[in-house]
Amino acid sequence: MGAVSDGFAVDQNFDGVTCVVTGGLGFIGSNTAIALVAAGARVRVIDALIPQHGGDRRNLDCIVTSASDDVRERVSITIASIADDEATRSVLAGADFVFNIAGQVSHLESMKDPLHDSEINVRSQLVFLEAMRNTCPSAVVVHTSTRQVYGRPRYMPVDEAHPTEPRDINGIDKLAGEQYHRLYGLVHGMRTVALRLTNVYGPRQNLAQQGLGFLPVFVRRALRGEALEVFGDGLQRRDCLHVDDVVGVLLLAARAMERGNVEPGSVFNVGGQEAISLRSIAETMAELGGAGSTVEFTPWPPELAAIDIGDFSTDATAVTNALGWTPRLPFRDGMQMTLDFYRRHPWYLPST
To answer: How far apart are CA 242 and CA 247, in angstroms?
Structure first.
């Protein structure tokens, strides 16, 4: 095994196993693929490279340009949708673990083009699960869902018993995809587990594409010395999670499911250490960016106000009890690491 990432610490051993990562050229997917390679796995990446979704071949440059023949030979990349049955079955054949991360994540775009969101987050997920059931039914599959399935919290911190009342099309469609994974675990005996992720940030996030969340926008503006615009009074709270912590829980969940320590069809919340106001998030990033950014407050655009969920704080007790996982990186430390990464890789910053 050998490290191929920017300092990511791999705790799990996947030496000699075959792992599939869907959406593996995107933000979370590429970080997962890199960690798996560092852990010794043979990794097959499948990604449709839909322009507005943020994937980029260069996210895996540290693998494909590695000086180690062993590292390069353990990775294959297929450019295809997971709704492409033939391509998907080829990638899945003989897989031991599947990290199903592909999806459309923009809440606003889901409202503008609901049929596209449904195609990516609902129909494609069902096609993919059928391909798994017919190709590698014994493989472990870890699916990334979202805290958006809860909608506006009735109480906080939000645990898995909280009602699921999404405020946008994306939340509804992600919930449907998650429920397909649960059903295939319960009815077909497939070893599925879904993780409802909070706001994730870190290396390899697309900084140029709009609609991928407020954190990459803040990162871009903080590095360029531009104003960080906060909607409303900025007192709404979010718990943010560094992608290294996300990758850690993905790998832990996979091994726990393999050992039978997690029931098929399980769903877990995955959240950060603390709920921080958007104002504090912006102020911290402006400071750490070191380029003279200021924090400005602006009224909510009507189309965003209509789907906003207010405060959100995650109760991750269940995943801690089941997997022994807790987030390691406080927001300030994780954001400092994130900004340092983009300074070392300036191509992520758009030229205009």
So the answer is: 9
Euclidean distance between CA atoms 161 and 163, whole angstroms: 6
- What are the tens digits of pLDDT across the range 98-139? 999 999 998 889 999 999 999 999 999 999 999 999 999 999
What distance, in Å, lies between the first and last C-alpha atoms of the chain?
Answer: 40
- Burial (CB count within 10 angstroms: exposed 0-12, middle 13-18, buried 19+), residue 304: middle
Tokens 């409202």 appear where?
A: 111
Helices (H), the chain: 27-38, 61-64, 69-73, 85-92, 107-112, 114-118, 124-135, 169-187, 214-224, 243-259, 278-289, 302-305, 317-323, 331-344
Domain spans, the chain: 18-204+242-271+313-328
d(Cα 85, Cα 128) in Å, to the nearest integer?
7
Confidence of residue 2 (pLDDT cuts 50, 70, 90): very low
Block residue for tokens 């003989």: 94
State the Cα–Cα distance between residues 194 and 179, nearest whole angstrom. Answer: 9
- In angstroms, the CA 58 to CA 210 distance is 19
Pairing between strand 240-242 and 295-298? Answer: unpaired
Task: Encode burial over 215-228: b for 16+ CB neighbours within 10 A, e otherwise.
Answer: bbbbbbbbbeebeb
**Is the CATH code 3.50.50.60 the one for domain 18-204+242-271+313-328?**
no
How many other C-beta atoms lie within 10 A of the C-beta of residue 326? 12
**Bridge partners of residue 99, in order along the sequence:** 21, 142
Structure tokens at 302: 């009507």
**CB-neighbour burial class of residue 249 (10 A; exposed 0-12, middle 13-18, buried 19+):** buried
Query: What are the Cα distances from residue 21, in Å, to 89, 174, 181, 290?
Result: 13, 18, 16, 35
Question: Is the pTM of the predicted complex or chain greater than 0.85?
Answer: yes
